[in-house]
Amino acid sequence: MNVLIVYAHPEPLSLNGALKDFAVQRLQAAGHVVQVSDLYAMEWNAVLGAAEIPERVHHRADILREQEKLLWADKVIFQFPLWWFSMPAIMKGWVERVYTYGFGYGVGEHSDVRWGDRYGEGTLAGKRAMLVVTAGGWQSHYGPRGINGAVDDLLFPIHHGILYYPGMEVLPPFLVYRTGCMDQQRFATICEELGQRLDTLAATPPIPFRRQNYGDYDIPAMTLKSELSPGVVGFKAHLQTDR
After folding, report:
1. First vs last C-alpha separation in the chain
2. The pLDDT of residue 59 is above 90
3. In the beta sheet, which residues pair with residue 78?
C-alpha cells in the first residue's frame, strides 16, 4: 500500500512531529511505502499566484510533484494541529494550489443531469483519506454541546469539501485532545491507539457521505430530495443514515 502523509507543524520536536514519525515507522514496518509532504520543512509556498488561476493555467513543478504523490497514493493522511478551528494556513494553501482546475475541481460533465465528477467521484476516487488532528482543548469542549462546537461540524468542511469533493473515501478522524497535558504514559497510549487506526486503514468503514450523482440530490439545484432525511438540515443531512 502506498501512503502519503501531508503534514503541517513548524516544530519537528513537537507532539505532532513525534506522532508523524511514529506513523511513518508503523506503516513502513507493516510493509507499506510512505511519502511525507512536510510542508514547513519544504517551505511550501501557500500563496496561489495569478499564473496558477484557471484562465492562466501554468502548473509549477512543485504543484505537479504533489499531484503525482496524490495519484500515487492509495491512502492519504492529513496531519495538523487544529489552529483557529481549521488546518494551518500552509496546509490550506497546499490545497488551494495543488487542487487545480481539472484535477481537484472542474472535472467531468456539467449539465442539467450531472454537475461534474465530485462528492464521491473525481480524480481521487478509489483512494482513502484520514485526518490526524491535535487540539489543546478538552474533548468535552468539542462535544455536541461544547463551547467550541461539535468536532464533526468543525471538520465537515475538510472532510466533505476537501477530501470527499475530489472523490476520496473519508475515514473517521484520529483526534488527540489536551495536548498540553502529555506524559510518557499517555503518549504511549495515544501511539497504540493511532497504530491500531493505521493498521486498519483499508478496513475501517468510511463516513457515509451521500454521493452527488446517485439520485439523492435534485440537479442542477443540488439540494437533497425532500423524501430523504425529512426534517434534517445542515451537515447531518448529507450523511446516508436512512439506508
Report:
1. 31
2. no
3. 6, 131
Instruction: Give the CATH number, domain containing residue 177.
Output: 3.40.50.360
- The reply to whether 243 falls in a domain is no
Is the dihedral angle over the CA atoms 214, 216, 217, 223 positive or is it negative?
Answer: negative
Q: Following DSSP, what letter does each residue of 138-201 receive, concatenated?
A: -GGGGSTT-TT--HHHHHHIIIIIIIITTT-EEPPPEEE--TTS--HHHHHHHHHHHHHHHHTT
Query: What's the mean pLDDT in 149-164?
Result: 97
Identify the CA nearest to 64 among candidates 74, 75, 72, 56: 72
pLDDT tens-place string over residues 30-46: 999 999 999 999 999 99
- Note down the domain range covering 140: 2-209
Phi–psi pair at 124, nearest 5 degrees = -100, 15
- Counting the structural domains of the chain, the total is 1
Q: What is the pLDDT of residue 186?
A: 96
In a domain, residue 232? The reply is: no
pLDDT at 55 over 60: no
DSSP state of 101: B
Q: Is residue 239 part of a domain?
A: no
As a whole number of angstroms, the distance between CA 235 and CA 17 comes to: 32
Instruction: For residue 180, tell me if it sits in a domain.
Output: yes
Model pTM? 0.94
